[in-house]
Amino acid sequence: MSAAGFIYRFEAGSGHGATPLLLLHGTGGDENDLLALGRAVAPDAALLSPRGKVLENGMPRFFRRLAEGVFDGDDVRRRADELADFVENARIRHGIAAPVALGYSNGANIAAAILLLRPEVLSGAILLRAMVPLTAAPPVDLAAKPVLIISGAQDPIVAPENAARLADLLRASRAAVELRVLPAGHGLSDPDVTMAQQWLRKFTAKIDKTTVA
Ligand code: MLT
After folding, report:
1. pTM score, two decimals?
2. Fewer CB atoms inside 10 A, N or C side of the chain?
3. How far is the CA of 106 from the centre of ligand 1 (A)?
């Protein structure tokens, strides 16, 4: 499928009211990359999985970078906005609720940028190997928005301190951030999946309680 210039995959959920997931791949990935991870983390959820539009030596990404870990801030803002619009339109097209982002690496960084710039688009976020996406983010009220950040203690691309700074930045905006550090590198490991599953279960239980109350 494609819309607003995004090639994407959509998989309907099983209709049990699970919060949809917005799957955001890493550099060089595509819309197929995180489908299995998304299904493992949330078996009943609808999955919306766009491919990043920026090409770096032929590798899809969600925004331009000047070097590894050095981002083009204007492009981050523009692309976060464009992706947020895509998600809002996809919600109408497919009849789904505001998703939880499940992003890896570059996909986690654009999800963090959306949290800082267009927070209403996401109901929460799972950020795997994320870093601070913007040097000067405007003030935002994340009003207890749930966020799970999982970093790797031996990650050569994203220093755990950078993920900790992202956690502080989001907490300063009142997000409810859980930061976990795994004995891992930049690649994902089984404990990432287990932690994401457990966190999402807690998140869903909280939503159910709110709905019943
Ligand atoms: C990024 O560019 O978003 C980060 O450096 C992670 C990566 O994609 O390698």
Report:
1. 0.96
2. C
3. 4
